[in-house]
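the two lines:
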Amino acid sequence: DIVMTQSPDSLALSLGERATINCKSSQSLLYNSNNKNFLAWYQLKSGQPPKLLIYWASTRESGVPDRFSGSGSGTDFTLTISRLQAEDVAVYYCQQYFSIPYTFGQGTKLEIK
Amino acid sequence: QVQLREWGPGLVKPSETLSLTCGVSGDSITSAEYWGWIRQSPGKGLEWIGSVYRGGSTYYNPSFRTRVAISIDTSKNQFSLRLSSVTAADTAIYYCARDLRLAVVRGVVTGWFDTWGQGTQVTVSS
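prediction for all of em together
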């Protein structure tokens, strides 16, 4: 199985600051045949259904604010929230879909300082 | 838009079978090819349990393969999860989701989860 490791485990920032969450995979998620990275990002808020934010490592899901962006390739990926807002408090997970079984990172808890 | 809702017992005894159902509303369950179950437990984060194809074929995480069964009932627009021989380690929030398989790697179809249910807490305890 591909192991996904996120860092940091938790993050506390002030409103308006930039949040950076990292995700590292135990093997490359870049498929040479289509030059795409098989990685998605999710946001989990208490009491709400989890929300897909990003797929193909950098493609924003419809309706997701543009302050959320994904980057990276191969084994190292980043989710960036450019200007932190109160409603961004959540736990964020990365997921690889390069191989079955799908695996997720352990999650990064984002809080407001 | 498609909405999903999970239901089932919130408390299951050790060694018994956990049974959950996910109802799909807003569209036919056959409008998508795959539907899946994922759980979130305090110690292990998110874990994919398995998925079912609209035609009934199933795909399981090997970690659960010996005790999991996922089925689909297109007439009721729902799909179900059964997890047998549960222990305290199976205590988790269980989510159903649409498994949107728009990726192909070496002939294997994979993808991400674009729509999720609210989740339902299941506690395993005597």
